[in-house]
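During the reporting period the student researcher (J.K.) took over the structure-prediction task from the postdoctoral fellow and processed the backlog of single-chain submissions. One of the processed entries is reproduced below for the supervisory committee.
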Amino acid sequence: MDADTRHLRLRTGITVPCLVQDHGKDDDGAAPLLLLHAWGESRRSFDRLIPLLAARRIVAPDLRGQGDADKPLSGYSLAEQAEDAAAILDALGMPRAAVVGSSSGGYVAQQLAVNNPEKVAALVLVGSPLTLQGRPAVANDIDALTDPLDEAWVRDSLTWFPLVHDVPAWYIEDRVRDGLSMPAHAWKTIFNALCEATPPTESGTIHAPTLILWGGQDNLLPRKDQETLAARIPGAVLRIYSDAAHLVLWECPDHVAEDITAFLRTLG
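J.K. obtained the following structure tokens:
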């Protein structure tokens, strides 16, 4: 496999790093995989998943305000985040992709599928919300953030979503580094934009073949919301991991890889 990190200047006005991994052979016309990470993370959150995926071209960018991407003061609405994702595909000369979104990255993926359906060959939502509207209890803590961020706060924020399975310590440390790489304004602006956005499935219909993966012990996203999300996407398949919580990607990368591979295989 050949992998390199490219720095893409997007038509939306920012530059983002993007891991592009080829598997050393033709992909028989199969759409590449575009991996969209969660709020507060980076492309490196897929480090345990990527080696497990079947032979396909993989594209994993850092999203606006996060990781090593540009961190402007504006441009963080859900629609703008989805447009960045579309612009990443344009910058790589990829007309369409199968899009995998983890947590809020799946919210961005949903919006991409609504706004740019021609670019989404398939959709895999991993612990992805139906809606984020409202003001959760952590909102006050986030609004109070200032630079430089307190490392203890970043570490504590990871405990908002309890884990059922053990996750390697190095992976947790990488997520702490992700959090510390973000300025306070990015933490706040992305969070508020997600909470204020109209849920994608209320603004349009997703027609792409869709697989929904959800942890049965998720303390953030209720099962009924996942069932509603599946019902709103024609033909969507909901798969429940009964022994996982919200951070499905962190806890079960092997199962996620197996299910993504099997799902995409059914699409030809």
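The committee noted the following: Strands lie at 2-9, 15-22, 33-36, 58-61, 97-102, 120-126, 210-215, 237-241.
J.K. will present the remaining backlog at the next meeting.
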